[in-house]
Amino acid sequence: MRLAVIMPPLHPMPPSPGGGVERLVDILLRANDDASEPLDITVFSRFDERAKAAAEGYRHTKFVWLNTTRSEPLSNQLEYKIRKKFGRRLHKRYDYLRALKLSLRYAEADGKFDIILLENCFEFARDIWKLTGKMPYLHAHNRFFGAGHAGAKRDFDCIEKYIFVSEYLRSAAVRAGVDEARTVILRDCVDMSLFNAANYADMRVEKRAKYGLSDDDILVVFVGRLIPEKGAIELIKAIDQSEYSKSKLKLLLVGSAEYGEDIRDEYRELLENAAPEGRVIFIGSVKPTSTARFLARADIAVVPSVWEEPAGLPVLEAMAIGLPLIVSDSGGIGEYTEEYAKTDGCVTVKRGLGFVTSIAEAIDRFAERLHSDRGWAGEIAAAARGCAEKYDSAGYYGEFVNIISGGKD
After folding, report:
1. How far apart, in Å, are the Cα atoms of 194 and each of 138, 165, 199, 291, 323?
2. What gap in Å lies between CA 376 and CA 263, rounded to an integer?
3. Which residues contact 145 (CB under 8 A, 6 or more apart)?
4. Which 8-state DSSP code applies to residue 190?
């Protein structure tokens, strides 16, 4: 099977480092390298020096680099608001589309693609259909639909099959007019072998000492983009409100406003000004392979999204490492934590009035439990990893191939 994978304009492949979309595609490409009958994959991606160098690591994937300008990234919440009002048209990157069209024509000169897969870039669907005569598949990681914008039904009918990362996202799309018969769910995955705390046990004490923490002190971790909808400011305020006094309690913020770049913007300054002195550590953007190391140093993970999170890879990564987990009642997160929430190692906090206070109280309860019951952390780690096992990346590739080959409706 000949497969074309089209990446979004702002997110080059492979991750170097990258966000959730790139990391999931990376898992697919690496699994394809190990498959007994690998797919013939061509990835169309914005040119990036780091990505081009990393691309040499794939054996069965060809890359077509699109030389385009790069616009400033929009936060997911702002993007959602604009798309909700105006639909897709405002977001179409015409410089990227022109380069994509030329490259597709050239690539198809060697033979037609069996399937064209859009990774989260729905806005190009109609143009791709017109160019190739083939309706593309859409792997939807975020909302791509506006509310009642002109031509919505026409645009939705340009997609052969919709692959959603959560039931929450699929249900919202169906309510907006997407044909449910064309939809399927492929949930996000996590590399359980990489996100395994046992791999990093030897460095835990040494690395925590860098932050002025002993092994008995409590380290809370946040992994994600430092943008308003991810809830970092709410978490910092919760740390400030924490009343736990039996040991030091610090917050580790792993991420930046944009993947791969340590951006200092107004929101970052707001976070720094709100941070209680000596209790918040800003790590900046790290490679995906390094995320596991920072999670393994922590005692509690918090995913405090204030917008409707379609899924949330940090949730799966924290579970795989085996951490007590605090999440908001956001979007599709609950679908991934459903089993873990049945244990006392996962707390879901309602957004709205009292959100910050509830996070602080949950952190204090976990901190108290970690100190009062030394065996609890091990029990919860085993439970968390058990819940994460069904999302192991080992089966992700097989599910994906089954979907695109028509074996799953």
Report:
1. 28, 21, 8, 10, 15
2. 38
3. 83, 87, 88, 122, 152, 156, 172, 173, 176, 177, 178
4. B
Distance, in Å, from the CA atom of 185 to the CA atom of 140, rounded to the nearest integer, reads 10
For the chain, the straight-line distance linking the first and the last C-alpha, in angstroms and rounded, comes to 19
25 close to 55: Cβ distance less than 8 angstroms: no
Q: Are 285 and 268 in contact (CB under 8 A)?
A: no
Residues in Cβ contact with 354 at an 8 Å cutoff, skipping those fewer than 6 apart: none
**Strand pairing report for 249-254 and 218-223:** parallel
- Can you give the pTM of this predicted structure? 0.90
Per-residue pLDDT of the chain (409 residues; tens, 9 = 90+): 999 999 988 777 765 555 788 889 999 999 999 999 999 999 999 887 777 777 888 999 999 998 876 554 444 555 555 555 554 444 567 788 889 999 998 888 777 899 999 999 898 999 999 999 999 999 999 888 765 445 567 789 999 999 999 999 999 999 988 999 999 999 999 999 999 999 998 888 888 888 888 888 999 999 998 989 999 999 999 999 999 988 889 999 998 877 656 677 889 999 999 999 999 999 988 877 789 999 999 999 999 999 999 998 999 999 999 999 999 999 999 999 999 999 999 999 999 999 999 999 999 999 999 999 989 999 999 999 999 999 999 999 999 999 999 854 4
Task: Confirm if 234 and 304 have CB atoms less than 8 A apart.
Answer: yes
* DSSP-derived secondary structure letter, 59: S
Task: Give the pair of three-digit tokens for residue 165.
Answer: 């990362």
Is the Cβ–Cβ distance between 250 and 217 less than 8 Å?
Answer: yes
CB-based burial label for 129 (10 Å; 0-12, 13-18, 19+): middle
Tokens of 46: 């914005």
Q: Are strands 61-66 and 115-119 parallel, antiparallel or unpaired?
A: unpaired
Number of residues that this document lists for the chain: 409
Rounded Cα–Cα distance for residues 334 and 342 (Å)? 11
Query: Could you give the CA distance from residue 302 to residue 237 in angstroms, rounded to a whole number?
Result: 13
Q: Order the strands of the 40-46 sheet from edge to edge.
A: 61-66, 40-46, 2-6, 115-119, 137-140, 161-164, 183-185
The two three-digit tokens of residue 199, written as one number: 């791999």
What is the spatial distance between Cα 273 and Cα 333, in angstroms, rounded to a whole number?
Answer: 29
Token pair in block for residue 206: 């040494």
